[in-house]
Structures are given as C-alpha cells and as structure tokens.
Automatic annotation (TrEMBL):
Source organism phylogeny: Eukaryota, Metazoa, Ecdysozoa, Arthropoda, Hexapoda
Gene Ontology BP, a term: SCF-dependent proteasomal ubiquitin-dependent protein catabolic process
Keyword NADP: no
Chain spans, region Disordered: 22-50
Chain segments annotated as coiled-coil in the UniProt record: none
Pfam family name, one: DUF7885
PROSITE patterns registered for this protein in UniProt: FBOX (PS50181)
Descriptive protein name: F-box domain-containing protein
Cellular compartments per GO CC: SCF ubiquitin ligase complex
Presence of keyword Signal: no
InterPro entries per the UniProt record, alphabetical: F-box-like_dom_sf (IPR036047), F-box_dom (IPR001810), FBXL15_LRR (IPR057207), Leu-rich_rpt_Cys-con_subtyp (IPR006553), LRR_dom_sf (IPR032675)
Record key words, sorted: Ubl conjugation pathway
Length: 647
C-alpha cells in the first residue's frame, strides 16, 4: 500500500503501524496477511465520519486502515497539547488572528495561560449595562480573566459582574473616584475565583471608607492569592487589616510607591502593621514587593527578624540613609536563602558587600535587578559568577562597573540559560566586551545597551552575527551607530575575515526581532531603512530623533515590515504627509503612532489616518504647526481610537 509522507507521520504519531515490541511489521507477515485476505474476502466496513466542526472549511484528511482503529487527522484536530505549544510562540495579536481559523483553534485561545496575557482596560467609561462598552461586552460570546478599571463611573447595579464574574482572576481599580466600600463588596462577591486584587491611586476610596468595621469582614475571597496597593497614601492600619483578612490565603503582598506624603508617626505605625501582617501570614507568604515605598533601615532589620518565613520573590527600593556597618538588607539576604527573583532597583545604599552576600547566599537566584545601584563597583560585581542559574540580569545605571568586573561576573563561564541582559548607561564598558558577551550568551532574547558608549558599528555587527535569537534590541542614544554598522556595507574593517574572504552582517539577519529601539541614533539614514529593514515579526519601532530619515526610507520600511504595530517618529524633521500615507496604507496592524514636533505634516496626514488606519488606537500628534486645530474632531472618525490628541 502506497502512503504519502504526511500520512505516514500521522499514522506513527498516533501509535499505529507498530508491532508488539514497538518495531514495524515483517515482510513475511505482511505477505501472509495479504494471501489470507485474498482467499477469504470480507466486506469492507463503512467508515463513519464524525464531523463536529462549525467552520465552513475543508482540510486534508487521511484514512489509514492497518488492522487498527481508523485515524482521522488534520490541522483542525491537531492534539491540543501540540496546538498550545505552537500558540506559545505567537504574540497576542497573532493568536487572535489564528483563533478565527476554526473552532478548535478558537477553543485553544481559551487556555488559561493565554487569557492571563490579555488585559481589558476600561478607561473613563461608565460601568452600566445600557451604555457602551459594557453593553457590547454583555453580547460577547467569549470570556476573559484580567481587567483594569481606570477613572470609571459606577452607576448602580450592573449585570456585567454576574455574567463574567466567575471567569475573572485579576482586577485592578485605578483612580476610581466613585468606588466605595459597598460597591467594592458587591463586585467582589460576584468574583468567586479572584486571585489578584489591586488598588492603585485609591486615596479617594480610602478617604470615603470610614469607619472600618473589623468585626464583620465581607466578602471573604478564599481564592485570593495577591493583594496590591500602589501609589496610595491615605490608607490606615484598619484598612490594611481588613483587606488582608478578606484573603486568608494571600501569598503575595505588594505595597509599592506608597507612604510618601504622610507624617512620620503615621508612617511608622503603618510599617509596624505591615511587619505584623507578615508575621501572621509568614507560613503562606511567598512574595513581597515594597519597591519605591518609604521605609528606613529599622524596618529592614525587623523584616529580617521574622522567623520561619521563606520568600521566593522580594522587591525593595531604599532612599534613606543606612548604616555603613551591618545594614538591614544584608540580614534579609542571609535569612532568605530561597529567593529566586530579587529586584533591588534604586536601592541607593546597596554596597559591594551586600552583592557578595547575594552571590554567596542566594544560589537559586534566577532574576537579579540592580538598576540604579550606583555604589556597586567591580569588586562586588565579580561575585556574580557564582550565580549559575541566572536568567535575567539588570546592571543599568551602575556607572562604576568596568570591563574587568563584568568579564569576571558573566563572560568567564558558560551561561546557556541567560535570556535577558540590561546594560544601559554604563560608561565604563568598552566595545571589547561586546564580542565576549556574544560568544558566551548565545541564547539572549533581550538586550539593552541604551546610552552606552561601547556600541559602535563594529560591536553591533557582533550582535547580528552571534545573537540570532534576539527578540528585543534597545540601542537608544547609541550615537556612534551608523548605516555601516546596521547594514554591513562600507565598513572600514570586516567583522569576520578568513584569508581573502570578508563577511559582514545586517540587522535584518535577526529574523525573530519584535522590538527595535533606535531613538537618538542620528547617523541612521534612509539607506538603512531601504536595505536592511526586512522584518516579518517586528512589532515595535522607535526612530525618534533620527533626523536623517525621510520619505524613501519610510515607504520601503512600511512595505518590508508588515507586522508593525507601534511606531515613534518624533523629531524626525523630514517626515512629511507622504510618509504618513505610506504608514497608514501599508501597515494594517498599526495601533500606536507618535508624531511629535514634525513641521512638515498638514491636514493630509490626518485625513490619511482617518481613511486607512482602521486599527489605530493611540496617536500623539502634538507640536505640528501646520496641522489644523480641528484635527482632534477629524480623528474621532477612527472607530478604534482610544485617545483624542490635543494638537
């Protein structure tokens, strides 16, 4: 029996066509079976095809009968596990498009992992059944797990919470002035499986919530795992006790960017309450985030004294004066040896001795963020080499670090697991370290060299040669980069030279690139956009302050980068109406466009966006003197637009 390659694959994937020991059939056995079948012909059984698809498409279906159950395979009934793995490689927009293919692919979009990546943001709307967008959502056939409400108006009872409440897992209230305690209670009662509650800029809410009745706690959210308070200063001790009592199983506590505009005695009282809550929940607590919240070294000392508490994630920032000898942060690091993710961004008093303690005690560490820790030097950074599980490292704005410390910390050992590296604003690094990074960290997907002098035409060529897995590349403010480095043409010295063969590389060889930041690279011209910008997956592009780009380059870029969704061309003085027309016509996925201080734009650009940019959501078109004052009214015709710009 002849069989196509794809049929053979489908057959063996599902386990048919194998003998009892896992091998194939022998030729003699096949001949005997053929003879027996020829002597005693049996009528063929009718093949019953069950087709429960609800989409009007036909795909290749293979029927195979080798003494086993009949197998019907095709792209629409691919095993769900394989389909989910394929979807993980796609971004949110691509997954939404793929979900329209067939019902099975649409069902895959309902997988929890994909739902959590999408946040529906309701901003400055009325939460009322009879008005949009709530009325539209009530007619929707899909559900969602994450929503954010910003400056919304709550008007009485709303059926929205009864319809979608059981699916919601995370909800954020941001600056909702009309939110009251009774309204919050009514909403939370309809969210039985809520896992994360966040209150952001909620001072008005806390001011109206008085008095706080601690004897009657409602509702009790037993599925709640995370409580977050952000950018709030008006909450009291009673508010904290009440909110924590609502979630008896809370494992993550976030109080970030808080306690900045209150008097010292009140702040001390609240900090003491936070420590008391941590002691009460120490057996269940796994993550705390106190970044950019005002506290002192005494708070850190008492934090370290909590016994039998094992945290896996800590985020801290520190702005006060700390004792030089035995600061509180070192005590915390000695006690919490199970930390996996550590964020100490803007911890201004972090010293080399604290970093050495991190490298010695936290051997399970995967994420280490030290952005803005300006006291660190090569002496402390060298100790990072002990962290062999490190996946994410952020040393941005640690301006005392040089090549010597970084080489010993990262480059001197193999690190296949590291995927993200942030080295912006480091004047001590030179271009000699770039090649070492590329040869050591071959699996990097995110790299940030914003404002670093080490990036030039030669060093950027090393990135294109070795780091083929890059998805995010940030080179803002790297003023030494020019067309020669990005295209590989007219370089004074080739990157690779073997005998008489010289090899150079272009940025288009980063085929997986999804975000590219080139703001301030003023040497970049249309030559790069025309010859090197050919990206099938590029979604975000920043060309602000690239003053030499103009119409030919932008038109070529719009044709060769069809997946672009976000573009920033602020202060590109040669951008004219024809550039905007090309972007609006050719980029069908364009969602965010920033056109600030462009003197050549006129009303023609506004009309082109209204006519062609059918998916545009955000636009910033300020500082364009020739754009008429009625441009905001014209832009209102774009049905998908979320903001009305002020020209």
């Amino acid at each position: 029996m002849e069989m196509s390659i794809e049929s053979w694959f489908n057959l063996h994937y599902y386990g048919f066509g194998h003998g009892a020991d896992g091998g194939g059939y022998d030729d003699d056995e096949e001949e005997e079976e053929d003879e027996s079948e020829a002597e005693e012909p049996t009528p063929k059984e009718p093949i019953e095809e069950v087709d429960d698809r609800e989409f009007p498409f036909h795909d290749d279906v293979f029927y195979i009968n080798l003494k086993g159950p009949r197998v019907r395979t095709g792209f629409d009934n691919l095993p769900m596990e394989i389909l989910l793995n394929i979807f993980r490689f796609l971004n949110g927009v691509d997954r939404d498009a793929a979900a329209l293919t067939c019902k099975r692919w649409f069902d895959a979009m309902g997988y929890r992992e994909f739902l959590d990546e999408v946040c529906f943001h309701f901003e400055e709307v009325s939460i009322c059944d009879g008005t949009p967008p709530i009325a539209l959502f009530l007619r929707s056939f899909r559900h969602f797990s994450n929503i954010k409400l910003t400056r919304v108006q709550f008007n009485g009872y709303c059926e929205f919470w009864d319809v979608f409440g059981e699916y919601l897992r995370e909800i954020t209230f941001c600056n909702c002035i009309t939110l009251t305690k009774s309204k919050l209670t009514m909403i939370l009662k309809r969210l039985p499986f809520l896992e994360c509650l966040a209150l952001e800029e909620a001072d008005e809410f806390f001011k109206t919530w008085t008095p706080v009745e601690l004897k009657r706690i409602e509702p009790v959210c037993r599925c709640l795992r995370k409580l977050a308070l952000r950018k709030s200063n008006a909450f009291t001790v009673d508010h904290l006790y009440y909110l924590v009592a609502m979630g008896p199983n809370i494992s993550a506590l976030e109080i970030s960017k808080c306690l900045k505009q209150i008097d010292a005695p009140t702040r001390v009282k609240i900090l003491t309450t936070i420590l008391t809550i941590m002691k009460m929940r120490k057996k269940k607590l796994q993550a705390v985030d106190f970044s950019y919240t005002m506290y002192d070294d005494l708070f850190l000392k008492q934090f370290a004294e909590i016994e039998n508490m094992s945290l896996s994630q800590i985020s801290l920032s520190f702005f006060e004066r700390a004792p030089i000898k035995d600061p509180g942060i070192i005590d915390i690091l000695r006690c919490q040896s199970a930390i996996v993710h550590l964020d100490l961004s803007s911890f201004l008093n972090l010293t080399d001795f604290a970093l050495i303690e991190i490298s010695t005690s936290l051997r399970l560490l995967k994420t280490l963020k030290l952005n803005g820790c300006w006291l660190l030097t090569d002496f402390g950074v060298e100790s990072i080499y002990k962290l062999d599980r490190l996946q994410v490292l952020d040393l941005s704005d640690c301006d005392k670090i040089s090549d010597r410390g970084f080489m010993k910390a990262i480059v001197d050992r193999r690190r296949d697991c590291m995927s993200q590296l942030y080295l912006s604003m480091l004047p001590g690094l030179t271009d000699s370290v770039i090649l070492k990074i590329c040869l050591t960290l071959l699996n990097l997907t995110v790299i940030d060299f914003c404002g670093s002098d080490c990036m030039n035409d030669t060093s950027v060529q090393f990135l294109f040669c070795y780091l083929k897995c890059l998805r995010i590349l940030r080179l803002n403010g790297c003023v030494k980069i020019s067309d020669a480095g990005l295209t590989g043409e007219n370089l004074p010295v080739a990157v690779i030279e073997i005998w008489d063969t010289q090899t150079t590389f272009a940025i288009c060889e980063l085929r997986s690139l999804q975000e590219l930041q080139l703001s301030g690279c003023f040497k970049v011209t249309d030559f790069t956009l025309t010859h090197a910008f050919r990206f099938r997956e590029l979604r975000e592009l920043n060309l602000a302050h690239c003053v030499q780009i103009s119409e030919p380059g932008i038109e070529a870029m719009s044709l060769n980068c069809p997946a672009l969704e976000q573009i920033d061309m602020s202060d590109c003085f040669h951008v004219n109406d024809r550039c905007v027309v090309a972007l609006a016509k050719n980029l069908v996925r364009l969602r965010s466009l920033k056109l600030v201080r462009l003197p050549l734009l006129t009303v023609a650009s506004v009309d082109a966006l209204v006519e062609y940019a059918k998916a545009l959501r955000y636009i910033n078109i300020r500082g364009c003197p020739k754009v008429p004052k009625d441009a905001p009214e014209r832009l209102k015709k774009i049905a998908t637009l979320r903001n009305i710009p002020k020209c």
